[in-house]
């Protein structure tokens, strides 16, 4: 790994930490279903990608461990404080977004 590669990795790690700060602590009011409808990913997706990256490097990690790494605590605790039941509007927006993605 070159110095430039190392710097790139450090920058990417800092960006990821800032994304987690933004989504988990600064804006917990944004619901996962809203993220899925608008961006096609949510906090749980980040946890799945985190786990896949760990496993690609030979690090065993459960889904709950990955979610705790992303949520900053057990996901169930975070969700109990911040996640609300999806509204009919949110469900409709997600369905429409998925249809739009499937049509591509």
UniProtKB/TrEMBL annotation:
InterPro entries per the UniProt record, alphabetical: SMc04008-like_domain (IPR023163), SMc04008-like_sf (IPR036810)
Domain called SMc04008-like: residue spans: 30-95
Species this chain originates from: Cognatiluteimonas weifangensis
Annotated Pfam families: DUF1244
Protein name from the UniProt record: DUF1244 domain-containing protein
Record lineage: Bacteria, Pseudomonadati, Pseudomonadota, Gammaproteobacteria, Lysobacterales
Domain of life: Bacteria
